[in-house]
Amino acid sequence: MQLSRVVDRLDEELRTADYADLDASANGLQVGPDEADIEHVAFAVDGVRETFEKAIAADADLLVVHHGLSWGGIDRITGQTYDRLAPLLEHDLALYVSHLPLDGHQELGNAAGVADVLELEDRTPFGELGPEYIGQLGAAPDPYSPDELRERLEADLDTGGRPVPVLDFGPDEIEDVAIVTGSGVDWLDEAVAAGADALVTGEGKGKVYHEAKEAGIHVFLAGHYATETFGVWSLQEVIEEWGLETTFLDVPTGL
């Protein structure tokens, strides 16, 4: 399949253009020629030298990632930026990036994947960002205790065996759960306003401890990497259905 066809189909599915004014990430094709023949697509959470080298070793033609290289532009291709770009250019490996569009997709996205793990029902978009959303809100069919929800996350997310930290300030029974993966604690107020008993995200900030305590809501910090594997996994399944060979590159950060 031609690279332009792969990119167009991904951009359409992910509504990439709708996030152009909302996301610092340059979503879509970040590195690559106008045209190339794509037979093998690799997937990873992070576009970094390690995943580039693994994709090259797997003989991939295209690498699809959640976190790319360009965040508000690249001024100079020197130092670490040069070292990261060099393997892509030397081996004709194209790079496609989907950051907030992949967070916000209500079926294929990262929050949707976490909601699947928790078997949430009656889901609605959550995590308002301008006219778009980057998370999900749903209801557990049977209430979780805080320990039960933590154990489910630890069992089903790629946390690297580390425990999931919990700010245990909410009710004894958790029914309504808000999810914004990665760095999502800035949506704590929205979770409270929506009546959520818990917010599941990847990583915290110092201020969230007292904010959660004063609001009476649980916060589960399940790991930035661990909460953001789901989107690229889902895209891998989509591209396999297009008849292309795929490989997932697991490079966990433990964060």
UniProtKB/TrEMBL annotation:
Q: Which GO terms describe its cellular component?
A: cytoplasm
SUPFAM superfamilies cross-referenced by the UniProt entry:
NIF3 (NGG1p interacting factor 3)-like
Q: For a divalent metal cation, which residues are the binding ones?
A: 66-67, 103, 224, 228
User: Could you tell me which InterPro entries the record lists for this protein?
Assistant: DUF34/NIF3 (IPR002678), DUF34/NIF3_sf (IPR036069)
Report a single Gene Ontology molecular function. metal ion binding
- A Pfam family cross-referenced in the UniProt record is DUF34_NIF3
Which keywords are on file for this protein? Metal-binding
So which residues are the signal peptide here? none
Q: Which NCBIfam families match?
A: YbgI_SA1388
As for family, the record states: Belongs to the GTP cyclohydrolase I type 2/NIF3 family.
The name of this protein is: Dinuclear metal center protein, YbgI/SA1388 family
Give the source species: Natrinema hispanicum
